[in-house]
Write a structure and sequence with these properties.
The chain is an alpha/beta fold. The protein contains 11 helices and 13 strands. Strand 2 and strand 3 form a beta hairpin. It is globular, with a radius of gyration of 17 Å.
Length: 271
């Protein structure tokens, strides 16, 4: 029996002018627009039939502050599906505190790139199933990469970036995905800086490159404009989960509509 594919809504959370947690939505990680209250949105998605839920504190790492754990706890009280929390997680203690606040998994990007041993430490202490390695990938068309693919007739590679895509690391995403898997990551969360918020579809060449390189489950993120894009990333890249934000946030499609579209096309989903 084929493994069920997952549909995962995600909220990007930041502090508003009054220091309160709020959800924002943007394009290419910029031009952020207020979208709603994180706790209310979490409750809505739990009731809507989401398979999992992702909470990302989008400026914690860039600002060097702690993840907003009080809000994480309030969200955890409203969701009864797996909850992944990311942003500002740099140490084993951060992982422990985030899990204690109610997260089922932690998503780590900058902290793991700066200290790869954190992946080993987290997996040993809390189990691989808790450790999700997030990557914010950006296309580069030069000779600085390790693994190349053809995109629109040109050769390109994908660079791991940090600080919401504002800073490159020079590290090839395929090499890093394999390293993270070897160190004990239980899942990979792949974001595309180029596709983020565009609604033009997932970056299929990126998702294919990562899915082909590892056996660890891959969550495809960035660029979903409708159920057909989830279908594409499942059938063309063999991703294990499709994450989306704005199409659900603004009511363009529901979780149910998306799953029914996929089920009608023989993609195994939980209805």
């Amino acid at each position: 029996m084929a493994l069920t594919k997952r549909i995962i809504p995600c909220i990007d959370v930041d502090l508003d002018e009054d220091g309160q947690a709020a959800v924002y939505t943007g394009v290419n990680f910029e031009d952020l627009e207020y979208t709603g209250d994180p706790v209310e949105m979490a409750k809505r998605y739990n009731e809507a039939g989401a398979d999992e839920f992702v909470f990302l504190d989008i400026t914690a790492s860039a600002e060097g502050r702690e993840t907003m754990l009080d809000t994480v706890g309030a969200v955890a009280d409203e969701v009864f599906i797996p909850l992944t929390v990311g942003g500002g997680i740099r140490t084993r203690a951060d992982i422990k505190e985030t899990l204690r606040a109610g997260a089922d998994k932690v998503s780590i990007n900058t902290g793991a790139l700066q200290n790869p041993a954190l992946v080993d430490e987290g997996a040993r202490a809390f189990g691989s199933q808790c450790i999700v390695i997030s990557v914010d990938a950006h296309r580069r068309y030069d000779d600085a990469g390790e693994y190349y693919t053809r995109v629109d007739g040109e050769s390109c590679w994908f660079e791991c970036t940090v600080k919401g895509g504002r800073e490159g690391t020079g590290r090839d995403i395929v090499e890093w995905a394999r390293t993270a898997e070897r160190r004990g990551a239980g899942e990979l969360f792949v974001n595309s800086i180029d596709a983020d918020g565009t609604k033009d579809g997932y970056d299929i060449p990126l998702m294919e490159a990562v899915c082909d390189a590892v056996s660890t489950p891959v969550i495809a993120s960035s660029g979903c404009g409708g159920p057909e894009h989830a279908y594409e990333v499942f059938t063309e890249a063999d991703a294990d989960a499709a994450l989306a934000a704005s199409i659900f946030h603004f009511g363009e499609y529901s979780i149910r509509e998306t799953k029914e579209y996929l089920a009608e096309r023989d993609i195994p989903v939980r209805l």
